Amino acid sequence: MDTLLSSEGDSQRTQYPYVTGTSVIGFKYKDGILMAADMGGSYGSTIRYKSVERLKQVGKHSLIGASGEISDFQEILKYLDELILHDNMWDDGNSLGPKEVHNYLTRVMYNRRNKFDPLWNSLIIGGVKNGHKYLGSVGMIGVHFEDDHVATGFGNHLARPILREEWRADLTFEEGVKLLEKCMRNLLYRDRSAVNKLQIAKITEEGLTVSQPYSLKTFWNFAAFENPTVGATGSW
Amino acid sequence: MNDINSPHSMGTTIIGVPYAGDVILGADSRTSTGLYAANRDSDKITQLTDNVYLCRSGSAADSQIVSDYVRHFLHQHMMQLGQPATVKVAANLIRLLSYSNKNMLQTGLIVGGWDKYEGGKIYGIPLGGTIVEQPFAIGGSGSTYFYGFFDQEWKDGMTKDEAEKLVVKAVSLAIARDGASGGVVRTVIINSEDVTRNFYPGDTLPLWHEELAPQNSLLDILSSASPEPMVS
């Protein structure tokens, strides 16, 4: 990578992430792809930034969601910008779809991993082109796959099980949003780096929309929550 | 053992707050090497161009060299452009250096300034080289002490006086609790017309919990106080 004034003397280096985004969830639904991510940028255990957009459009047909180091995501967006620009410059009526974007990013991520200099992200790419829905995932070591529902980070542990039970291929937009919110609420309860401000993006053949940021209600009013240690003093 | 999740703590307190289309930057003045305050009078708000300034935190050497390079590149850029640089360009040059050299640099920066296209703007560039445009930015090790204070007190549409009071109050709260922050509070106010530097010496800052009003000597207390000031 061409860098301004950096020395390339280090032959072996893996970085540490500094400002990180947490889970992204995505799944196919009747008309296309739905994806959700919160707007948090954590700095170690501090929730430092609370308005980070982690869902972005790529060209005409794709949507990318990122978790991990935000600076690396910003750099990936620059690479994608260049990719789409060159694709447009061909001016041949064709345009890169989500499968191509996913494949490109897989090569980028895997090659950086081989140089021990990874882009510290887990990415989800989704989109619709010519009626065909596509949803894929790629991480910092280059592991990549496609599926009907994918997630990054904690989402794999907390959201995927819900999706395995309740996902269907013919979900309507309303059902899909409710399902995403169910997953995001669960993450909000259990993921320490989750933030209660999220965006939901939908991509269909017609185009892409990213919702305005909004917050979810949470539920704490259970009888069992009020006095949990009454039968066992000293416990938690 | 380096805990992969804990960020490096950075000596310093720095703040950037836009208000009414202009911008105010603030910082403390302590540079420490280990437990020693090597400079109690530092100037951490550095000029990049006539209209763009930079708050530096973290490694003094790294932040200085980054600001020197960016000042140089901005100067060349303005020669070509024929007009003042925008805050966005300055911030993105800082990001470029911070990101490309992320393995070697340890500096968190706040870029603030005024340009004719966007007015007053603040950009935060923490460790790693993420660039974040924000309605206000706080940074440095001292900033952890007033995340809650800022969450409560900051509001949109403040006047210049309100914004400056907020900045000075916050830096002085951090100085009260953060060993790596101290000295004086410096502020720089940037608007379309000019740039104003202000200086608040340590002894003019408000007193916080468990702090006492400074005296010249015990002797003054003894001579003015009640008959039994000394207790055995």
Structure description:
Chain A is α+β, with helices and mostly antiparallel strands and about 240 residues long. Chain A is built from 6 helices and 13 strands. In chain A, strand 8 and strand 9 form a beta hairpin. Chain A is globular and about 70 Å long. The model of chain A has no long low-confidence stretch (mean pLDDT about 95). In chain B, about 30% of the residues lie in helices and about 25% in strands. Chain B has helices at about 60-80, 85-100, 145-155, 160-175, 220-225, and strands at about 15-20, 20-25, 30-35, 35-40, 45, 50-60, 105-115, 120-125, 130-135, 135-140, 185-190, 195-200. A 5-stranded antiparallel β-sheet of chain B has the order 10-1-2-11-12, with helices on one face. In chain B, strands 5-6-7-8-9 form a 5-stranded antiparallel β-sheet, covered by helices on one side. A two-stranded antiparallel ribbon of chain B has the order 3-4. In chain B, a hairpin with a 4-residue loop joins strand 11 (about 185-190) and strand 12. In chain B, about 45% of the residues are buried. Classes of the chains: A alpha+beta (about 240), B alpha+beta (about 230). At the A-B interface, strand 5 and helix 1 of A face helix 2 of B.
In terms of DSSP E residues, the strand content of chain B is 25-35%
Q: Could you tell me the number of beta strands of chain B?
A: 12
| Structural class computed from helices and strand pairing of chain B | alpha+beta
> Can you summarize the main beta sheet of chain B?
5 strands, antiparallel
Radius of gyration of chain B: 20 Å
Which two chains touch over the largest interface? A-B, 27 and 27 residues
- Shape designation of chain A: globular
User: DSSP helix count of chain B?
Assistant: 5
Q: Termini of chain A, distance in Å?
A: 51 Å
On the 0 to 100 scale, the average pLDDT of chain B is 91
The share of residues in helices of chain A is 25-40%
Content-based structural category of chain A:
alpha+beta
Major sheet attributes of chain A: 8 strands, antiparallel
Spatial strand sequence of the major β-sheet of chain B? 10-1-2-11-12
Please state the average pLDDT score of chain A: 94
User: In whole angstroms, how far apart are the ends of chain B?
Assistant: 50 Å
Multimeric organization: heterodimer
How much β-strand is present in the residues of chain A?
A: 25-35%
